[in-house]
Each structure stands twice: as C-alpha cells, then as structure tokens.
Design a protein that fits this description.
761 residues; alpha+beta; 5-stranded antiparallel β-sheet; 25 helices; 17 strands
C-alpha cells in the first residue's frame, strides 16, 4: 500500500493516507511482539505455558511472526538461560507453527497440526529419552497443546483487534504474565487489571468491565493462587463502578475504590490485604493519568442497530407498493382495452360505410339492399381481394352482382374512400396496440425489477456497528468525514462496506490503498471499491475479494466487408462475471445496429442490478419500437458468481453455447425466437456450476455452419492445453471461417470465451 500511495501524493487523500499506511504495520507488529512476549512469560498453575503458542496460531497473517519472536524471547527470559524440557518443546512447537503458516498462509489446520504435533513429538522424545521427563512431561505438554489449540481457534474466530472474546484472551495472557511480577508490595498484574477495568467503567462500558474482571481475575488466580483475594476485590470494585456510576469519571473512580477496599477486606484479614489494596490504588492512579479522551463515555451502539432494519424495511415496503401499483396499472390498461368495442376491424365496415355514403340516398336502395340483398352483399365482399391487391377500385373491376348499379363511378369512389379510411384506421390500431403492449411490458418489467430491489432491501444483511464506526473514524481521520458508513454481513457470510462521502475523485492507486486499509479494519480482503457518483455525493462500495476471477477473450469475422452484426460485451460486476453475445438479424450495417443496441442495453441493465430475464424484456421493447422496420437480435448471456462458481445462462434465439467442466465439453441451449420479434420474450434459463479451470463459450450461429462436433473436440484440446481465452476464440473463428468458405455459406462469425481461475488472496 505504501508503494501504491507514493505514486500519487499530490491528492490530499493520498497524502493523508500515506503516513497511516507507513506507521500502522509497525504499530501492529510491535503490539503483536509485546503480546507474544507476555504470552511466553505467562505461566498457569506453575507448569503450563500455552499462551505463546496459542497467540502465534491465532494472530493475523501480518502479525504472527512478530508474535512468535516475542513468545520465544519470553520463554528464554523466563528461564534466564536454564530452559526446562517443557520450554524446549514449546520453542520447537512455535517454530513449526511459524513454518506451517508461511507454507500455507491463511489456513489454520496445518499450523495447528504442525505446532501441536511438534509439541507432542518433543514431549515423547524427552519423556522416553535419556533425560527422563516421564509422564509428567507428557501431561504438561498435552495440556499446553490443548489450551494453545483452543486459544488459537478462538482468536481466529474472534480477532483480537475487535472488542470481544479475542481481546479478552490477549488481556488474560497479559494478566497472567504480570500476575507473577511484583515490585515490592505492588503486584503489576493487579495494577494492570485495576487500570483497565476502571477505564472501561469510566467509558460507560459496564458489561465489558464485568466480563474483563471475570476473565482477568481467573488469569490472575491461574498465575498465582495467592492472588485470589485480589481478584475477588477487583470483581467487587468493577461491579460497584459498573452498576452505580457508569460513564461518570469521578463517581466511577470513587465507587471502584470503595468496592475494591470492601472486597479485599471481606476476603482477607487487613494485615495481608493492604498490599493488594495498594496495588489496586496504583492501578487507579495509572488510569487517572490516561488522556481524557480515552476515558470519555462512548455512545451506545445498541440503539442504532435496530433502527437500520426498520428504515430498510420501510423503504422495501414502499418499493413493493410501487411495484404492485405499476403491475396493477399494466393489468388495468390491458383489461380496459379488451373490454372496449373495436371499430373498423373487419371489411364489413367498408361495406357499411359505402352504403351510408352513397346507397342510402339512392332510388334503387330498396331493390339492391332488400329485394336482392344476398347478391349485393356477395358483390361487395368480392371487392375485398381486388382492393387488397390493387389498393383501389375501378369501374371495370366491379363484379357481375354490382353490374346493375346506376352510379358505378360514384360507387367505386365511395368504396375507395371507405377502404382507404379502413386501412388507415387499421394501421393506427395496430400501431396503438404495439405502443400499448410496449408500455404495459415496460410497466411489468420495471415492477418486477422494483420487486427484486425491494426484496434485497428487505434483507440488507446483519449490520456490524463496531466495524462501521471504525471505518467512519478512519475516513474522518483522513479529513473527509463520511455522510454514511455501513458494514454488513450478508446471508452467505460475506462482508460488504458502503461509504458515502462528499463528491470526491479517486485514482486507481488510491482506491487500491483504501481497499487494503478498509479490509484491515474489517478483517477481510477487499477488492478496489466500486465508485458511484450522484448529486454531489460519492459512494464507495467495498466487496470481499472473490474466490474466482474471470479472464475474457473474443474474436469475430464479418460475413462481408468489415461490419459484423454480432456484438460482444464482457465485464465483471462486484460479485459476478458477465458475458453477452447478441447477433443482429441478417448481415451488414442494419444487423450491426440491432446487435450492438441489444448488447449495450443489456450490459447497462445488468450493471444496474436487473436480472437477465428483466433485461431481455426491456431490450425486447426497445428493439420493437426502434423503427418501423422489423428489428430483432438474439440474446446469449452467462453470469457467473465469482464467490460460488454458480453460472446462470439465458438464451433468446441464440445458438447453442458450450461449457467445459473437468476437461469435458458439452453444448447447452435449445432453439427459441430472438428478442424484438414478439410482444414478449421466449427465453430459456439454466443454472450450472463451474470451477477454476472451466470455460464458458458463447458463439453466433455462423460458427456452427458445419455442426458442433468439431467445436467440442477443439474445446477439449484447448482446455487440456490450458489455452488463454483470446487464443481459443481466435482458433474457433479461424477454423469456422475456413469451413464456411468450403461450404459456400458465409455468415458473421463470433466467439466469446470466459475462463475461471482461482483468485489468490
């Protein structure tokens, strides 16, 4: 991160982040070294030394080596050069654990097996060797291994950087180490415990103070049984301060001092209790010397957490109501349209209009339309094919049934005018129906999209107020206090962070540095954040680094000239890899317009969070209304979840695609209609699971002019050779072009390839 920030120090954000990036690792490693030193020094019940190995197993990747060095130094200092057999075994175990963590970074089980296994093996060698450690050494080392393994597992589960069990365990190691150190009448362990507990009471963290006194008191008793009265007195003092004066500094000091004296005197006679009381007083004096900000009451996080869910739930409810309203509006428009009478829908209207215009005032009306009604109607119906073929009627076109008409020219003019009006109204009705269908389809698609968004907002994930506060404090320390900071844990256990700031620009190195620092605060590995800017605000969305990464490749060849009707879009959203292939109907420029329009609109909708089905419905409407001419394009889409490898395929009129899983290739997809042809979308969805090393291949129909057999063989050969996607795509297109030229059936040819690889953390 230091190197990344040094590339652009002109930005105030980078200038503020650079010192923090340089100092923070040193502070963390120094703290880890001190914790390891205390853990290596601490002895429980006069024989057990589990803290050094346990802290080495449990600390983070950037701190465990410093912790191990401190633990080794603590073990060496504790024996003052005369090491016990137990200490020698522990030194070997710490070395084995460090080696395992270097060889298998991020994995707990190999380090546990290496450290505890080395401890047990050393105990066996010494117990039955010439030194003769005996059964006592086996039991002692076995207990050390069990306690160290449990401690390491707990620290992995509850990191010591966050308030909770992890921090308590590190505090217990410090209390146990200092419990056996005395400077005259002052016991450093009692001083440490008293200062920490009264500081927590002053900050208003009563529950934390009570938990601290319980755990640290047990550590003091484990280090030295004679410190039991002191632990009891500290427990009484913490209870008094936490219950009587939480968050009030002077009252908390007074209550703690009174409770401590009362507790110690009740447990032990005054003569021997004065030393413990004096140590506790020294702890109070040490706490009083701390900076005032360290003892200031902290705002409670508990009331804020429940308010997040109602706020999200209210927004989700309102979105759901809007979605239902839009869906109901679309249904109402369709129902009203179906219920209304539709005029001018048949040729009978042309006959009736000609009658009302000419024949109604004619003297022969009674004879033509009553006495010879059947013959007259047959004659009028016989005009329909003539009008549809020629578009107009002349006197010579009149059939025999109408030969008795005394106004043939006027009849032809009336019929021509009625037919022109009929055709115009029919075209208007068809256009209006298409517009109505497009409108209601848009309403329905947007309603479904709002419903999906409502469901997501209704499940925002579990908020983590402590991490949210740490992230907010970090940005505030850089001079840009966030407008909002939220860290949540979703249903799959993935951590996400969203930070909203006043409008700010970030360079790529700055985003990478921020991802590393925010990931450290949240104990996760984050990718560079997604940046969203709107209305004077910038939102940074941090997502965990996925287990997989996608590598894309594509190649294409036009049927004639240089313009291809195929269009490809390949990109990665924060959680998924997206690949789109659209094939416009026909070849040349018109097909290229349809293909590129469909691919571009689909990509934008997917980036906005729409599902493939909803995106296809909206693109279908856009193509249908693009122009008066018929427009259409196939839609071939695959979306791969980079955390789980779950791939969702959607095809509408597209050629079969191909998947290569475990070295075996297979086609996927059946025949369907393109989008832009019908009012709705006739698409197919399918879910498959992919892993690292697998390929997903989308092709246009021009590539399959010679069938799919050769494609399957080529894919398996390329997968066995681990060809890059770009090379595989070019190979497929060049081979298909040669086969198409041999058959004399040229067409646009395109191949889009996606390969999954394991993402190093």
């Amino acid at each position: 991160m230091h190197d990344l920030l040094r590339q652009d120090t002109l930005h105030p954000f980078a200038a503020a982040l650079l010192p923090r990036a340089a100092v923070r690792p040193a502070l963390r490693q120094s703290s880890a070294f001190l914790a390891g030193l205390l853990g290596g020094w601490a002895v429980l019940y006069g024989a057990l030394i589990p803290f050094g190995l346990g802290l080495t197993l449990g600390f983070a990747e950037d701190c465990f080596a410093a912790c191990a060095a401190g633990a080794v130094l603590g073990l060496l200092l504790h024996g003052f050069g005369a090491l016990s057999l137990d200490s020698i075994c522990l030194l070997c175990a710490i070395g084995a654990a460090v080696a395992a963590r270097w060889l298998w970074p991020g994995r707990f089980r190999p380090a546990l097996l290496a450290g505890c296994g080395a401890l047990g093996l050393g105990a066996v060698c010494f117990a039955f060797g010439p030194t003769g450690g005996g059964v006592d050494l086996l039991l002692t080392c076995g207990a050390d291994a069990l306690l160290a393994g449990a401690l390491g597992f707990a620290l992995r589960r509850f990191p010591p950087e966050t308030p909770g069990a992890g921090m308590l365990l590190v505090g217990a190691a410090a209390a146990a180490a200092l419990g056996g150190v005395a400077l005259g009448p002052v016991c450093l362990g009692v001083v440490f415990c008293a200062a920490l507990e009264v500081a927590l009471c002053c900050r208003g963290q009563g529950k934390a103070a009570l938990a601290c006194c319980a755990v640290l008191g047990a550590a003091l008793c484990g280090a030295d049984a004679s410190l039991g009265p002191a632990a009891a007195g500290l427990s009484c003092a913490s209870a008094a301060a936490a219950l009587l004066a939480p968050g009030r500094r002077v009252e908390a000091f007074a209550a703690y001092a009174g409770g401590c004296v009362t507790g110690v005197l009740c447990v032990q006679p005054p003569g021997s209790a004065f030393g413990f009381a004096f140590s506790a007083g020294a702890g109070l004096g040490l706490a009083a010397l701390l900076p005032g900000g360290w003892l200031a009451p902290v705002p409670a996080d508990a009331p804020d957490a429940p308010e997040e869910r109602p706020r999200f739930s209210a927004a989700a409810t309102r979105l759901e109501a809007v979605a239902e309203s839009l869906s109901s509006l679309a249904e109402t428009v369709n129902e009203v349209y179906d219920a209304l009478p539709h005029r001018c829908e048949t040729f009978r209207w042309v006959i009736d209009n000609a009658h009302d215009t000419l024949c109604f005032n004619c003297g022969r009306r009674e004879s033509c339309w009553k006495q010879e009604y059947t013959a007259t109607l047959d004659g009028m119906n016989a005009l329909r094919p003539i009008l549809e073929r020629n578009g107009h009627l002349e006197t010579g076109d009149l059939p025999a049934q109408l030969g008795r008409c005394i106004h043939p020219a006027a009849l032809c003019a009336a019929v021509n005018k009625s037919f022109a009006l009929y055709r115009s109204r029919k075209e208007t009705r068809v256009h209006a129906e298409a517009m109505r269908t497009a409108l209601t389809e848009q309403y329905s698609a947007v309603a479904d999209a709002l419903g999906v968004l409502s469901e997501q907002l209704g499940r925002p994930g579990t908020p983590e107020p402590y991490k949210s506060g740490r992230v907010a404090d970090f940005f505030a320390s850089l001079g840009t206090p966030p407008l909002e900071s939220a860290v949540t844990l979703d249903d799959l256990g993935r951590t996400r962070a969203a930070v909203t700031l006043p409008r700010t620009r970030f360079s790529a190195p700055e985003l990478a540095a921020l991802a590393q620092e925010v990931g450290r605060l949240c104990r996760r590995t984050f990718d560079p954040p997604q940046v969203l800017s709107c209305k004077g605000m910038t939102t940074l969305l941090f997502c965990e680094k996925p287990a997989l990464r996608a590598i894309f490749g594509s190649a294409g060849s036009a049927a004639r000239g240089s313009i291809s009707g195929d269009a490809v879009q390949q990109f990665c959203s924060p959680t998924a890899a997206q690949m789109i292939l659209c094939d416009g109907m026909g070849t040349g420029r018109p097909a290229a317009v349809d293909g590129n329009l469909a691919a571009e609109l689909t990509a934008r909708l997917l980036k906005a969070g729409f599902t493939a089905e909803l995106a296809a419905r909206l693109v279908n409407v856009a193509l249908a209304l693009k122009s008066d001419e018929e427009s259409g394009a196939t839609l071939d889409l695959i979306s791969v979840d980079l955390y789980t490898g779950t791939a969702r395929l959607f095809k509408a009129g597209a050629a079969p695609g191909f998947l290569v899983h475990g070295g075996r290739a297979r086609p996927v997809g059946d025949a369907s209609l393109p989008i832009g042809i019908l009012g709705g979308v006739n698409g197919q969805s399918r879910v498959v699971h992919l892993a690292a090393g697998d390929y997903a291949v989308l092709v246009s129909d021009g590539l399959l002019v010679d069938g799919t057999g050769w494609v399957l063989k080529q894919l398996e050969l390329s997968a066995a050779a681990a060809d890059p996607p770009e090379v595989l795509a070019k190979t497929l297109v060049e081979t298909a072009r040669a086969r198409a030229e041999a058959t004399g059936r040229p067409d646009d040819i395109t191949a889009a390839v996606l390969r999954l690889e394991a993402c190093g953390r």
